[in-house]
Amino acid sequence: MSAPTSRALKRSDPPGTSAPILQLSASASRAAWLAAYEAVRGETERRAAPLSAEDQVVQSMPDASPIKWHRAHVTWFFEQFLLVPYSANYRVFDERFPFLFNSYYVSAGPRHERPRRGLITRPDVERVTAYRQHVDAAVRALITAADDELFATVHPILEIGLHHEQQHQELMLTDILHAFAQNPVLPTYDSGWRWPVTAGKVSAFAELAEGVHTIGYGGDGFSYDNEGPAHRVLVGPVRIARQLVTNGEWMHFMADGGYETPTLWLSDGWATVQTEGWKAPGYWREVDGARFRLTFAGLEPVDPDLPVCHISYYEADAFARWAGKHLPSEAEWEVAARSGMLDDAFGQVWQWTRSAYLPYPGYGAAPGALGEYNGKFMVNQMVLRGSSLATPEGHARNSYRNFFVPQARWQFTGLRLVDHPDKAALMAAPVQKARPAEMEGGASFDFAADVMAGLQARPKRIPSKYFYDMAGSRLFEEITQLPEYYPTRVERGILAENAEAIAKLLPAGRALVEFGNGSSAKTRIVLRAARELSTYVPVDIAAEFLQEQAEALRLEFPSLNVLPVAADFTRAFDLPASVRTMPRVGFFPGSTIGNFEPLDAAGFLHHAGQSLGTDAVMVVGVDLVKNEAVLHAAYNDAAGVTARFNLNLLARINRELDGNFDLDSFEHRASFDRRHSRIEMHLVSRAAQRVSIDGYSFDFAEGETIHTENSYKYTVDAFRALAREAGWRPISVWTDSDGWFSIHVLANEADAANQPGSWRP
């Protein structure tokens, strides 16, 4: 059987060539209703056209259905609910078909068992085609001839029938792809098919402030009953990823033992992994050491930049836990989508949420058989939002609630992540209580909320950015002078050796923006060489220490305009007004990039690129993989300064959050985790104990830890790959003679593409 491929699948087709948006009303012209009907029914046939009669009868698993069955079932729907009750003189095509092609409508009569649909070899494909033609003719006649009163009654049934068929159009594609995946020859559906164009590599998170929002469908057009009633919900604060998780990120999860680490998985999920032998997403294959996946175009190499696909809820949840994040709730997803915060919300992959599929407040199923459409499935399933590359045009909206059992992964399903503090911790955080002045600008609430959330997490953790109050900043400067602590010493040597090359990036009229300046000791090396530089913007969370260093720089460099910004540079912040129109160069020394999780590191670099502008360059210090003995000594110095630095975090909690940590009851521990290629710093409880913070209690078992810092160690190639993912083009890299440390020069991708020579040192 030869016919053109479904237009809904081909990226090269212009918009609007498949089914139109179906938001018609009873007052719409009969011609409009006929056009909508013809478009939807025609799309089903276009999707079936590339398939042989043998393809159309196969059922590869109980959850899938043969293509022939889909074509007949959606036809039965019109016959059963529209023609039989409302079309006078309609003749049922075949009295046996309701039993064969009813799905789950108990009120409509008995039906064939779902797992045995593949055994329905007769009626054959030609007979099903004749069935469709018979019903099409009757529906056309009903649309044309019905008087206004009758049409007002039947048009809602016609409408839901069209949307119902669009749902099955997507199932046709997912079911045939699953069937092809079981075939050793891996058939091709469409050799010219390509994955739809994505929004690109954007690892940033969008901030969704706390607020009460309306979710659910509240318009006058069509929606399924499970999308309503529209109602108000409390959402946020939450940071939601603009981008979908990619194949490349998923491969990091796999390489890190994601499928072999039971602590990442829900109990049922881990049992499923063991039973099914999952080691990768659905349809992935390994051929001669390379990864491929089955697509509509056949077996293709896994593209690391495309969204990961064919994953179950269990896998999505495990990945989120591995990444230190969460899946969004369906309310968070919908509010963010309505606000335009999400890239590729539609047309790529359905996105798992952490929300169970349950009725909205005030929901009631419609009477009769059509009331079975959604309501009776509201148990033991999880909600997905968005739409996929297989979803017909016009069949997606912000309020649409898809749902599947958590182990399902033959659909085009992927994920995006969110990051937010625990709600209970937010409620517990002492937001009304005044805090010391050094925490000005709202940082008090962030510190309290993050501490409360982190100590309720398992395992306990506190973000490393909170090391740097005044006392912590001074202790860290002391660390940089220690003989064991090589990063500062080695990086200063690289900077001094290449200072003139860096200075060429800083001609007159440009501003240098440093993320986390600390004592500005390394910055001074650059400032002394960059004699034409007029403006320097240090950004740091420790406001008092920042002002102190800014005053010192003004004295040392009287012609330099020093404009300090007290802010958490890992979040959005405002640059001084005078700098916003200047070309900018970013400076991020000290291997602070290693304190981020890799996903967050890419997100930070992307955010920095947006702040710095399209003509920006960034200079980044990156610690490299090296002998473990060197690393151990650097983070466990003989003088115990690093231990005091780590313990100062508890002292800060005592000072600012009314804590009662006994510092002698905790000890510093730092060790190298080979699997993750990172140094981990922890505070270890010496005994079972209970600690109070602002009246809230937290229990510690003996040996239990608070994870306070990671310091990832990269290879040069690994960091360059990370920078590319974040939208930067690597230009140059300098290292010391031992290969212990590196300094990278990166150009914003847009600038690098347009002016490759203008920023080369």
From TrEMBL:
Coiled-coil residue windows: none
Gene3D superfamilies: paralog of FGE (formylglycine-generating enzyme), Vaccinia Virus protein VP39
Pfam families (alphabetical): DinB_2, FGE-sulfatase, Methyltransf_33
Top-level division of the source organism's lineage: Bacteria
Residue ranges occupied by any Sulfatase-modifying factor enzyme-like domain in the UniProt entry: 209-341
A GO biological process held by the record: ergothioneine biosynthetic process
Pathway in which this enzyme or protein is active: Amino-acid biosynthesis; ergothioneine biosynthesis
Example GO molecular function: methyltransferase activity
Region spans: Disordered: 1-20
Domain DinB-like: 36-172
Database matches in InterPro entries: CTDL_fold (IPR016187), DinB-like (IPR024775), DinB/YfiT-like (IPR034660), EgtB (IPR017806), EgtD (IPR035094), EgtD_Methyltrsf_superfamily (IPR051128), MeTrfase_dom (IPR019257), SAM-dependent_MTases_sf (IPR029063)
Record-annotated Histidine-specific methyltransferase SAM-dependent domain positions: 447-746
Protein keywords: Iron, Methyltransferase, Oxidoreductase, Transferase
Matching PANTHER family: ERGOTHIONEINE BIOSYNTHESIS PROTEIN 1
NCBIfam families: egtB_TIGR03440 (TIGR03440), egtD_ergothio (TIGR03438)
Name this protein carries in UniProt: L-histidine N(Alpha)-methyltransferase
Source organism (scientific name): Pseudaminobacter soli (ex Li et al. 2025)
